[in-house]
């Protein structure tokens, strides 16, 4: 009988130890990056979205990786207009081209997620703003819950860094969408079958299109999801 009791005690202790090990492995990760070891950097203001809900805690963490190497990390501790933003510096030894992936630590349930978005590194690029942050999805994009495309409706292509291109928030979540832009007469002035990169600067045949109202469709043929909108172009003098 004593042997059975001792065996039960040992099993309980082993179970408790295993629970402790699992808990420790799910604790906040020790992601680190050494900026002096890199030549180039870019910035990002990002929020975390899991299960179509934006996380509202200053203690969540985003990590940015090239393969298994951490290239940037920050807590979502910057609060602007009710959004909990991570202000990230992201590093590389190449001026552009590195494919970067993301991981998320969610403090609420002490869990790690491999994010469903990627970006390309580009020296001095700036992903996201305080009013329109980059969205790091923990499970899947939520564009299908939106009735209105989160996009700009105004382009002033004067190379001042503001409203120079047709901008879609979190554009990487819409990789399977085709974008087509028409002028007021129905002439197609721009088209891309997939993976639009927020880079149409209101040009057609190498020239800036005239000032006026343009119309766009943004459609995923596989799902049938489609957005339509008006885009106003103000050509610089």
Structure summary:
The protein has 237 residues and is mainly beta.
Notes on the structure:
The structure is a single chain. The chain has one helix spanning 2-25, and strands at residues 40-50, 53-54, 61-66, 69-75, 78-80, 83-92, 96-106, 111-122, 126-127, 134-137, 154-155, 178-182, 188-192, 203-204, 207-208, 212-219, 226-233. The protein has 237 residues and is mostly beta strands. It has 2 domains: 35-137, Immunoglobulin-like (Sandwich); 149-233, Immunoglobulin-like, CATH 2.60.40. Strands 1, 2, 5, 6, 9 and 10 form a 6-stranded mixed beta sheet that branches. The longest helix has 24 residues, at 2-25. It is globular.
The top-level CATH class of the largest domain is Mainly Beta
Q: Averaging pLDDT over every residue, what do you get?
A: 84
Uncertain regions spanning at least 5 consecutive residues: 7-25
Write the H/E string, N to C. Answer: HEEEEEEEEEEEEEEEEE
Distance between the termini: 95 Å
Quickly give the structural class.
Answer: mainly beta
Biggest pleated-sheet summary: 6 strands, mixed
How many distinct beta strands?
17
What is the global morphology? Answer: globular
Radius of gyration: 23 Å
Strand content: 35-45%
At CATH's second level, what is the architecture of the largest domain?
Sandwich
CATH T-level topology of the largest domain: Immunoglobulin-like
Number of domains: 2
List keywords for this structure.
five-stranded mixed beta sheet, Immunoglobulin-like, mainly beta, globular, 17 strands, 2 domains, six-stranded mixed beta sheet
What is this structure's SSE topology?
Layout: H1 2-25, E1 40-50, E2 53-54, E3 61-66, E4 69-75, E5 78-80, E6 83-92, E7 96-106, E8 111-122, E9 126-127, E10 134-137, E11 154-155, E12 178-182, E13 188-192, E14 203-204, E15 207-208, E16 212-219, E17 226-233
Parallel strand pairs: 1-9, 1-10, 11-17
Antiparallel strand pairs: 1-2, 1-6, 3-4, 3-7, 5-6, 7-8, 12-13, 12-16, 14-15, 16-17
């Amino acid at each position: 009988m004593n042997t059975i009791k001792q065996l039960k005690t040992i099993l309980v202790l082993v179970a408790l130890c295993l629970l402790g090990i699992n808990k420790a492995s799910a604790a906040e990760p020790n992601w680190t990056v050494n900026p002096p070891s890199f030549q180039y950097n870019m910035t990002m203001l990002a929020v975390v979205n899991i299960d179509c809900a934006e996380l509202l805690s200053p203690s969540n963490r985003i990590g940015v990786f090239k393969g298994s190497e951490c290239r940037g990390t920050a807590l979502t501790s910057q609060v602007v207009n009710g959004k909990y933003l991570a202000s990230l510096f992201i590093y590389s030894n190449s001026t552009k081209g590195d494919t970067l992936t993301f991981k998320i630590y969610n403090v609420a349930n002490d869990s790690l997620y491999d994010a469903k978005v990627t970006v390309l590194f580009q020296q001095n690029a700036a992903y996201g703003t305080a009013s329109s942050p980059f969205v790091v999805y923990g499970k899947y994009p939520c564009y299908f819950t939106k009735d209105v495309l989160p996009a700009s409706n105004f382009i002033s292509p004067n190379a001042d860094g503001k409203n120079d291109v047709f901008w879609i928030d979190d554009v990487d979540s819409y990789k399977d969408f085709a974008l087509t832009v028409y002028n007021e007469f129905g002439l197609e002035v721009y088209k891309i079958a997939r993976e639009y990169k927020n880079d149409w600067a209101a040009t057609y045949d190498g020239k800036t299109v005239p000032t006026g109202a343009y119309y766009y469709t943004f459609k995923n043929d596989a799902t049938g999801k489609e957005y339509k909108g008006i885009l106003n172009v103000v050509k610089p003098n």
